[in-house]
Amino acid sequence: MAAKRKTPVRTRNPDLIRGVGKYSRSKMYHKRGLWAIKAKNGGVFPRHDPKPKPPAAAEKAPKFYPADDVKKPLLNKRKPKPTKLRASITPGTVLILLAGRFMGKRVVFLKQLASGLLLVTGPFKINGVPLRRVNQSYVIATSTKVDISGVNIEKFDDKYFAKAVEKKKKKGEGEFFEAEKEDKKKLPEDKKEDQKAVDASLIKSIEGVPDLKAYLAARFSLKSGMKPHELVF
Amino acid sequence: MPFKRYVEIGRVALVNYGKDYGKLVVIVDVVDQNRALIDAPDMVRGQMNFKRLTLTDITIDIPRIPKKKTLIEAMEKADVKNKWENSSWGRKLIVQKRRASLNDFDRFKLMLAKIKRSGVIRQELAKLKKENAS
């Protein structure tokens, strides 16, 4: 490849309008100085012979090739964008969960994780919802906000919530006939400590607002006469 | 049986259909059998079918098609805003609007307040029943 120029080339042929240049082909020939290059080289364009390439190693026929020609799928270079967070969801918003084990629970939003999921907590003492990830689509954002300034949530990310990897044990014959004793999976102590740390200042700010604690403890449900499309959340 | 509210110049009406739904307007002229020229302090004067209007009890004293300034003065003099907001119809509309704009948290607090109120009422009732029985 030729050496790169220090300044990028600006065209010598400005556009009158898109698709129409100011100068004709013969004028451009003159402007680019192709006549001077030819003159320097004795009336013809200089021709550079291709550089001698080292001889390529002789390729052997492959040992194995498939019977049918199979088409390879096209290359996909798409990079998904990070999930856009709804404008109504800001740190400290009370959300209503719509699906899953905690359906109907009102919960405090902490932050959006890198995977796009929302980090959320009950707080655990109030309604039994632990630090948990939740999808934005399964959530109604209310306009009630809780003061979240005293909470440190820097350390929580998607890796924190990954399943703990278990070592697989090879079973011997005798063990097949024994009843498999599985311990009930216990929640590690440090996760409990994390929950308590996050909830401590949250609960203080929640108790500052009258009735907010009872509100978060109660579940949401649609009653007779409530029309979701007319309700203001 | 006879009509009590008449279409007249100066009659205040409530718009019940269309872009200006819920607004109080004043009939300033009658165009023909079906349409009136209406005006309000915050809108451009225009025509509207009578079917879109519901007449109220309030009238104001204006000449036919008054200037905006005159209209506003007349409405101030007759105190239309306060008369409307203190009338039972006006109060009902205000309550409906307030109920529709309640937050989820507000609805929860409302439920607690209703339970508390009915609890107090039931206690009183129980007390009175006991007095009556004895």
Short characterization:
The complex is a heterodimer of chains A (233) and B (134). Chain A is of the alpha+beta class. Chain A contains six helices and seven strands.
Output the keywords.
heterodimer, A: 233 residues, alpha+beta, SH3 type barrels, 5-stranded antiparallel sheet, two-stranded antiparallel sheet, 7 strands, B: 134 residues, 2 domains, 4 helices, 46% helix, elongated
Overall number of domains of chain B: 2
Low-pLDDT windows of residues of chain B: none
Shape of chain B: elongated
Question: What is the correct CATH architecture of the largest domain in chain B?
Answer: Roll
The geometry of chain A reads as: elongated
Largest interface: A-B, 16 and 9 residues
Largest sheet of chain B: 5 strands, antiparallel
Subunit organisation of the chains: heterodimer
Instruction: Return the average pLDDT of chain B rounded to an integer.
Output: 95
Structural class of chain B: alpha+beta
- Approximately how much beta-strand content do the residues of chain A carry? 5-15%
Number of helices of chain B: 4
List the helices and strands and how they pair.
The complex is a heterodimer of chains A (233) and B (134).
Chain A: E1 15-17, E2 20-21, H1 25-31, H2 34-40, E3 93-97, E4 106-112, E5 118-121, H3 124-127, E6 132-134, E7 139-145, H4 173-177, H5 189-207, H6 212-217
Antiparallel strand pairs in A: 1-2, 3-4, 3-7, 4-5, 5-6
Chain B: E1 11-15, E2 24-30, E3 35-40, E4 43-49, E5 53-59, H1 68-78, H2 80-86, H3 88-100, H4 104-133
Family (chain B): Belongs to the eukaryotic ribosomal protein eL14 family.
InterPro entries (chain B): Rib_uL2_dom2 (IPR014722), Ribosomal_eL14 (IPR039660), Ribosomal_eL14_dom (IPR002784), Translation_prot_SH3-like_sf (IPR008991)
Keywords (chain B): Ribonucleoprotein, Ribosomal protein
Describe this protein's structure:
The complex is a heterodimer of chains A (233) and B (134). By secondary structure, chain A is α+β, with helices and mostly antiparallel strands. Chain A has a domain at 93-161 and 190-222: SH3 type barrels. Chain A has six helices and seven strands. Chain A has helices at residues 25-31, 34-40, 124-127, 173-177, 189-207, 212-217, and strands spanning 15-17, 20-21, 93-97, 106-112, 118-121, 132-134, 139-145. Chain A has a five-stranded antiparallel beta sheet with strand order 6-5-4-3-7. In chain A, strands 1-2 form a two-stranded antiparallel ribbon. The longest helix of chain A has 19 residues, at 189-207. The two termini of chain A are 63 Å apart. The model of chain A has no long low-confidence stretch (mean pLDDT 86). Chain B is an alpha+beta fold and 134 residues long. Chain B has two domains: 1-101, SH3 type barrels; 103-133. Chain B contains four helices and five strands, in the order E-E-E-E-E-H-H-H-H. The longest helix of chain B has 30 residues, at 104-133. Helix content of chain B is 46%, strand content 24%. Chain B has a five-stranded antiparallel beta sheet. Chain B has helices spanning 68-78, 80-86, 88-100, 104-133; strands at residues 11-15, 24-30, 35-40, 43-49, 53-59. The mean pLDDT of chain B is 95. The A-B interface holds A 94, 96, 106, 142-144, 211-212, 214-215, 218, 220, 230-233 and B 100-105, 108-109, 112. Chain A: GO terms for molecular function: RNA binding; structural constituent of ribosome. Chain A: It comes from Durio zibethinus. Chain A: This is 60S ribosomal protein L6.
